[in-house]
Write a structure and sequence with these properties.
alpha+beta, Sulfite Oxidase, Chain A, domain 2, 7-stranded mixed β-sheet, 5 helices, 29% strand
């Protein structure tokens, strides 16, 4: 692991280490890898940093829209965590650098009625989270990984990182949060994945009787790589 420097005076950012210490770090039926496979639906979007915007909307007292420069100017956080993909690989000891999700939540000021969040991204992709799971110290809106900028195929210019859930919940190319008063299924959740996605409970697939070969076929047809 590298030690990324902060933008203020070049001092190292202290990591917020959220790697579990109370359980096996590799969840059931996962295989450890040092690689970082690329998996997504469709093609890598072309993003113009000058026009990119991040939006906080829905049941909040302070809806807002931020430019990429405004996000980069916010206080930075370095989260040290593991990655667990629903396709059964795990990559340990990752450093994701960006802005704390809790900082963004403080700016938005969710209303008491808000219980869930729909995360939306480029190409119409969405994923859903309970607000309580988004509001955790280790979650970060990241643009750097292991001391380097994310590459476009891994979510540049911005990727959500939610360390305690499966990796599909960490949306690439994220564009905003919509705060809701009820759960609303996201893209993969509508296509058979679990609504929550806890790796240690193996919450891979939802209430539908979806088999692995069906998911694999859907991924191939979606141009996943």
């Amino acid at each position: 692991m590298s030690t990324p420097e902060s933008p203020e005076g070049g001092q190292p950012l202290p990591p917020l280490d959220v790697r579990p210490t109370d359980r096996d770090r590799v969840p059931p039926r996962q295989s450890r890898t040092t690689k970082w496979p690329v998996l997504h639906n469709g093609d890598v979007p072309a993003v113009d940093p000058a026009t990119w915007r991040f939006e906080l909307r829905g049941l909040v007292d302070a809806p807002a829209t931020f430019t990429l420069d405004e996000i980069h100017a916010m206080p930075r956080q370095l989260t040290r965590c593991d990655i667990h993909c629903v396709t059964r690989w795990s990559r340990l000891d990752n450093d994701f650098e960006g802005v704390s999700v809790q900082h963004l939540l403080r700016l938005a000021r969710p209303r008491p009625a808000a219980t869930h969040v729909l995360v939306f991204a480029e190409e119409g992709f969405t994923t859903n989270l309970p607000l309580a799971d988004l509001d955790r110290p280790g979650n970060v809106l990241a643009w750097r990984h292991d001391g380097r900028d994310l590459t476009p195929d891994h979510g540049w210019p911005m990727r959500l990182v939610v360390p305690h859930l499966y990796f599909w919940k960490r949306a690439k190319w994220v564009r905003g949060f919509e705060f809701l008063d009820a759960e609303r299924a996201g893209f993969w959740e509508r296509n058979g994945y679990h609504m929550y996605g806890d790796p240690w409970r193996e919450q891979r697939y939802g209430g539908l009787d979806v088999k692995q070969w069906v998911i694999n076929t859907f991924r191939r047809n979606s141009k996943s790589t």
